[in-house]
Design brief:
Layout (H helix, E strand, L loop, with lengths): L29 E6 L3 E6 L6 E7 L2 E7 L1 E6 L5 E6 L4 E4 L2 E7 L4 E7 L2
Antiparallel strand pairs: 1-2, 2-9, 3-8, 4-7, 4-9, 5-6, 5-8
Length: about 110
């Protein structure tokens, strides 16, 4: 595992109601790098101001390539601003959220499909 601080607090709350798959929105800042029946690897590279509508992720790993601030909004309307640090990794439970990049950011997200 790469050196770095585990980022705690960003996109980490699980929500019992699982929403829409993020790829159904066809947002320009999220792309599939690889996928099989068990895993999906996404590149998340929003520019400042890019938004992603409310969506869900299964359990996943987030590895930050380029750090920056992200505003995350949960289904109940609460929001938090977190700072992702380059080189850090986060083990995430399933989550439903919307997000907005407050800075240019780049990360790799590995989702477990089952």
């Amino acid at each position: 595992m790469p050196k770095g601080v585990f980022v705690v607090g960003i996109l980490m709350l699980a929500c019992p109601a699982f929403g829409q798959d993020v790829m159904t929105y066809h947002v320009k800042h999220i792309s599939v790098l690889a996928e099989d029946r068990d895993l999906r690897v996404l590149r998340y590279a929003p520019k400042k101001g890019d938004r992603t509508p409310m969506h869900s992720h299964p359990a996943s790993v987030l590895y930050v390539i380029k750090g920056g601030r992200i505003k995350t909004t949960l289904p109940d309307g609460t929001s938090t601003t977190s700072t992702l640090k380059a080189g850090s990794a986060l083990l995430r439970p399933p989550v439903t959220h919307a997000d907005e990049a407050l800075d240019d950011v780049e990360a790799i997200l590995i989702e477990r499909k089952r």
